[in-house]
Amino acid sequence: MPADPRPETSASRSGTTAVARGGTTTPTRSLAMAGLMAALTAVLAQLRIPLPFTPVPITGQTLGVMLSGLLLGPRWGLAAQLVYLLLGIAGAPVFAGGAAGLATLAGPTGGFLVSYPLAAWLAGLLAGTGTGRGTMTGPAGVPRFGRAFLAAVVGGIVLVYAIGAPWFALETGRAWPQVWAGAVLPFIPGDLAKAVLAAWLSGRVLRALGGRWV
Description:
membrane, cell membrane, transport, biotin transmembrane transporter activity
């Protein structure tokens, strides 16, 4: 049978082009968004308030961690925070106060930094960002405020403390009452405020973008 001589329609060409581009456009956009969230975390790290009784300062870093998970989902939220850590290890002054290098990770606050990729992953997983699962409202993939807040608290606070506090205790040799007083309790009110802001802001952004950012 002879080949169909009819010319390719513009619709079929568009479909072919979309398929051809689909394999690269989405990963490229996702990588760009992960890089953007890593940069945001680096900027928030410079919002630093030292406390006289502890080497752990108040910073905005965990807001970047929460937003990474809530906006990008577990996979790309984790990637964003891995990029952030790798930049710091490579010598970029992205940690609190412009610190950088492996020495920072080996110090008393290193456990908090190491926890960030897992924290973003867990926050994104619990929020169900981009999945359309569970108790969602509005466009598919936009978690309700309560669910996003809980995800931010469990991922961006509980998990961060669960890794950071024991690390702090080992590095400083302080007893657990001192660890609670110097590395946990003073930071809970501010971190809860960050969780509220992250839940509200991520919902606004995701709704504006139809439920997905990556």
